[in-house]
Amino acid sequence: MKKIEAIIKPFKIEEVKDALAEAGITGMTVSEVKGYGRQAGHTELYRGAEYVVDFIPKIKIEVVVKAEDVETIIEKITEAARTGKIGDGKIFVTDIEKVVRIRTGEVDEEAI
């Protein structure tokens, strides 16, 4: 099993959610996060004063999938989240050792 974490632009969440549902993903965790990469911060003007925005608002999506589904899910997220501009985000894939569904006690692939 693998955990896929995707950091995307906030306005792309619905497109990514729909693409994942189409791929058979029935559950995910979504968090509002802030950060920066190559995009870095930027300056904005507010009431005549300029200020620096160091951290850019993003959305983090987390899904756990079977190892054989990883490439398909990465493709779906990439296609749905891509704008072609800086700051489109990143996808991280890590190993998951064990999953337990608390309600039923199901473990591993049956639990996801």
Structural class: alpha+beta
State the oligomer: single chain
Order of helices and strands, N to C? EHEEEEHE
**Approximate helicity band:** 10-25%
Mean pLDDT: 90
Biggest beta-sheet profile: 4 strands, antiparallel
Share in β-strands = 35-45%
Rg computed from alpha carbons, rounded to a whole number of angstroms: 17 Å
Q: What best-fitting shape do the alpha-carbon axes yield?
A: elongated
Overall number of strands: 6
Low-confidence runs: none
In whole angstroms, the N-to-C terminal distance is 9 Å
Number of helices: 2
Biggest sheet strand order reads 2-5-1-6
Describe this entry's structure for a reader:
The chain is elongated. It is built from 2 helices and 6 strands. It has helices at 13-22, 70-81, and strands at 2-8, 29-35, 42-46, 49-53, 56-65, 89-95. The relative contact order is 0.31. By secondary structure, the protein is an alpha+beta fold.
What is the compact description of this entry?
The protein has 112 residues and is α+β, with helices and mostly antiparallel strands. The chain contains two helices and six strands.
